[in-house]
Amino acid sequence: MSEDEELPDLGGGSTRSSNSTAVSGGGGDHNYVSPSPDQVLENVLENVLCFLTSRRDRNAASLVCKSWYRAEALTRSELFIGNCYSVSPRRVTNRFRLVKAIAIKGKPRFSDFSLLPPDWGAHFGPWLSAMSRSYRALEKLYLKRMSVTDDDLSFAAQSFPILKELVMVCCEGFGTGGLAIVASGCREIRVLELMDSDVGDDEADWISCFPDNVTCLESFVFDCVEAPINFEALERLVARSPSLKKLRLNCYISIGQLYRLMIRAPQLTHLGTGSFSPLEIVAQGEQELNYFSAFAACKSLICLSGFREIIPDYLSAIYPVCGNLTSLNLSYANINAEQLKPVICLCHKLQTFWVLDSVSDEGLQAVSAACKDLRELRVFPVQALEDAEGPVSEVGLLAISEGCRKLQSILYFCQRMTNAAVVAMSKNCLDLVVFRLCIMGRHRPDHITGEPMDEGFGAIVKNCKKLTRLAVSGLLTDRAFSYIGQYGKLLRTLSVAFAGNTDLGLKYLLEGCPKLQKLEIRDSPFGDSALFAGLHHYYNMRFLWMSSCKVTRQGCEEIARQLPGLVVEVITRDREENETSEYVDTLYMYRSLDGPRADAPRLMVRPSLMICGKHCTSTECRFSIARSLDFTLSVWVPCISR
Amino acid sequence: MKGYSRKDEGCPRLLDLIPKEKERLTKSAEEKKTRHGSSEEKQLELRLGPPNGDWTIKNKNISREKDHESLLPFGYFSPWSSSSGTTPFLQAHGQLKESSQPNPAKTAVPNSSSSSSSAQKRTAPTPVVGWPPIRSFRKNLANGSSSKPVSELQNAVGSKISSEKPIENSPKSLLVKINMDGVPIGRKVDLKEHDSYEKLSFAVDELFRGLLAAQSNFSAVGIKNDEDGGKAITGLLDGSGEYTLVYEDNEGDRLLIGDVPWHMFVSSVKRLRVLKSSELPTLSRGRKHGKLSLDTSPK
User: What is this model's ipTM?
Assistant: First the structure.
């Protein structure tokens, strides 16, 4: 359930290639030869490599020598593409021939917060084209932050006849029409999960498009689909899906409809409850359905979510399952502490808990008292504003740190915080791997001492030795970054916003954190000289994002010149003639084996030519930039031959 | 800091026009959007955020420019002004005069050290794009749990009214949705691109011919995507073909195409449908109010 998983559960194992001595499907560029000792060795190798499932292990194995490289390429069946532009689809399909499962990630995370133009890219189409030729036996497809069209879905359904799992997270570009095609065309589908995706309402009755016979559906997640669905068809679908274990409904399903589904599927382990409110308010004295007994019948339920429009009175229906729950997501339920307490005090096995700050510090204290096994906590704000009332604060954080010692991951939105509470958490929760604190007011200091939040975050990186992901906020000086650089040796992902004083801040990070992979920075005063401090490291990173910082065009050009393996994208808001800015608005750079992408909007890329959009006077510029184009996308290609 | 509006229900998706017409698209200065089509065919269009609209949370004045969809969630602060020269941040500063933030968020925070003094009073800060970092579907939860969450713009998470309207774009294009019986994927067609029913009929054929062929491929074993494109869809206008083109007007009635002059049709049409001729009640042609009393439930 956690967002931004590093590695989706694609399942393990890889195929054994038993005939690799003969005409091998993969080694198409080898002529047939009788088995030599080397070939025998490769056979052995391939059979041994089957047991390597971790992609990092496989990457290492592939670097040993050419023979190992070939053998590994033939036996890798799960692919993970962390940045869809880091490598071309063709290169991937040329190297890996027997892929059964693939995960592709597209846009950078800040696109979730409207910081990237729509249609920036991350189109699934080109990947689909390549895969449809080379990976017809594909079974699992996982896409995150990709732009997927209905036609893509249609083509995918045609191209992958044995597709078993389709998971799309934070994707957009398609609608219920495309889902209808998937439902009708993917006959083997076991897992169909749409999470946090923007799905258009084409008024297609896609639920009715599943085949009429018994399905092999095991997981059906569509809680993000904001369109009404045909409930009767869904009910029939659930009734003929005996393997269904995970079902997450959208907000168009009322609690009465939920009841009907639950009694048909008591074997569910994961349930997203939809709106959790009735279609009409039940009149006094009218017989209500016995929701309590419906939940009681679901003896295997361990994960509950939904509650999209909850009427709190109904929450007591879930009491029977609370004792078994390992995961509870109330992050759409605007309930207070009193409404939470009777539920949470029963959830003694809870490991993952997502909630709204409407429960206030008092509610969090109840969590701390009851959920001793808690591993992951996310507290979202009801009001995502900078100056709202803040029902949660350092009090809640402190309580959690004292009660939930096994905490590994926390995301906490608040309006006020103190260093002391953060320091306490760093000492109490030594297993922390993910620490993301968002003090919603920009530049807000410790509200009791007035100090910057440097010491708090410093303690986190110093004491939590397993920390790999950090998001900072509040008033932070360069000192905070010196702490991170000094202690954050395992840090892979870092989010910075409205923080720091000078270039030193970024320099500390780039020089101090050897494992840094994903660095996203916004509205912080880091400039070119800080940028250059990372030249030794950028090839080891998945990406660097800097928006509204103090990086100049020249700085970006220089980076591109010095590091030809990087793609440097600069998004500059268009300005009138008299308006200038020395700084670029957004810099997004990433390593790539195949150079700048060809599908950047309104962009023609040629070697040695910098495209400047509106101000480009080059006659070689093929596209005319329309006046309505409000920004330009420049991609620097280094001026050396490739 | 710039912001880019999230695509949402009413919002213009990428225009789906006939892929062959690339040359027409490149010469057009308008923003067109395409949602379907492979990336090779797809015109690379940028969809910009609302220009000129001062998308601060407090601001209710949404200026309608030619390129902007009518409904956008609040909180998406878009700096894209197509004609005005000022940045919306400066606009915002102008509007929210009570803001005392020393620096617009469009650049970095050079004075952060000065703003770091705890003595500085913070009055209502200018809302910033993408801050706090909450995804849009998690917003608007502020109302009581017993009521449905209401977006400030009536087009929201939880709103159960899926409104039916053409996708307005600009005076120069009029996109309407078009669905065909038996084909789940809908399309959009720009009525300004055509000036007669015949041309529209031809466009419809081109839009759906390939999809129909793909549909029938699905039911066959051994799925292969042919390039032949399938057979033409003819007789849309006169009832002679397998399918007939109908439209829904602004009163929600379904009418046969062709009864009124083209320009009248364009002004009243809200969406198009391609229905199986066999399922239409027999109606005589040539009358003014050719209403079809079909079950208009979209499902």
Answer: 0.83
